[in-house]
Specification:
heterodimer, A: alpha+beta, 3-stranded antiparallel sheet, B: alpha/beta, 9-stranded mixed sheet, two-stranded antiparallel sheet, 11 strands
Chain lengths: 93, 232
């Protein structure tokens, strides 16, 4: 499967209050050496044929990210969907 | 013939009913427009109401921007159609790049619903001719993502061109840059605002009737009355 991964992040100069809220919760976990948390979004796009980075870039620029406040990167997912599915993050209950 | 004002309903719009009512209270004919129908049905102006169009998925307004009706509205707005975007409608106008900048999560992370004092900073011909310069008004706000941001150059341009229509006074509810509550495009026919003027048109249900001025301004503009003060 031709999967492209798009990562969207707020631009560095844009305040991320969500990330700040997470950062301020970390001391409650006993974590005191984290200076910053910023939260973005990972989007996986599956193409029917070959992964098309140019089309993915266009999709990201027009819809997935707002270029006024966000930056994005696109890359072909080389891990492959099979290996991913064989390693679930959490065992089903 | 009374003026026909379109109010768009997207999936997830909440304030289309109140916006239509505000149009009627101001003396216009409210015409319901549907997100999937690109036809504007001959309306003379459009209101994009508040709510959570398409569930605010991705970003507020990001998907509504591509609704068939928005393609038509974007083209008509460039030709001078009066358009008022309220709250989610403001977000849609920014996402569609009809207005500059963006609206992001409130700085303090809290949803804010309160009666908000604003200062009208720009008395413009289309949407604010009923107000006086620097007039204070009270209009409700209710949003979690209303923090207006833009780069410094854009903000300076907005200031220089008189496109900052209203600012928050008595406390900035969301961390908006330069206390911006409402802006217009350069031509002044498109205004986006986070506060809800449609909720301030009736003393029974609103904190004031100050919101009515946005709707009466537009109707007066379309009726061809001189845009300057005291013309009526």
């Amino acid at each position: 499967m031709a999967r492209v991964v798009v990562d969207v992040m707020l631009k560095p100069e844009i305040l991320d209050p969500q990330g700040q809220a997470v950062a301020s919760a970390l001391p409650r976990l006993g974590v005191n050496d984290v200076t910053s948390v910023r939260i973005g979004r990972r989007i996986e796009i599956e193409f029917a044929g070959e992964p098309d980075l140019d089309r993915a870039r266009e999709i990201a620029d027009k819809l997935l990210a707002n270029p006024v406040i966000e930056d994005f990167t696109v890359r072909v997912d080389t891990t492959g969907s099979d290996s991913r599915e064989s390693q679930p993050a959490e065992a089903p209950a | 013939m009374s003026t026909r004002v379109g109010v768009v309903t997207f999936p997830g719009s909440l304030d289309d009913g109140d916006a239509a009512r505000a149009v009627r209270v101001a003396g216009g004919d409210a015409v319901g427009l549907w997100h999937a129908d690109p036809d504007l049905h001959g309306v003379d102006a459009v209101v994009l109401p508040g709510g959570f169009s398409y569930g605010d998925y991705l970003r507020g307004g990001a998907i509504a921007r591509f609704a068939p009706v928005m393609e038509t509205i974007a083209a008509a707005a460039r030709e001078g159609l009066p358009v008022l975007g309220i709250c989610n409608g403001f977000q849609i106008l920014c996402e569609a790049h009809i207005l500059p900048g963006a609206l992001i999560r409130n700085q303090h992370m809290h949803f804010r619903a309160r009666d908000q004092r604003l200062r009208i900073e720009a008395v413009q011909p289309v949407w604010t001719n009923a107000f006086t310069d620097s007039q204070d008004v009270v209009i409700p706000i209710k949003h979690g993502e209303g923090r207006y941001v833009a780069d410094e150059r854009t903000l300076d341009e907005l200031e220089a061109n008189g496109q900052i229509v209203a600012r928050y006074v008595g406390g900035n509810p969301n961390g908006a840059q330069r206390d911006i509550a409402a802006i217009s495009n350069a031509a002044g026919n498109v205004v986006g605002m986070m506060p809800h003027p449609e909720h301030a048109v009736d003393a029974l249900t609103g904190p004031s009737t100050d919101g009515l001025g946005f709707f009466t301004s537009m109707l007066k503009f379309l009726a061809g009355a001189p845009a300057d003060q005291g013309a009526s």
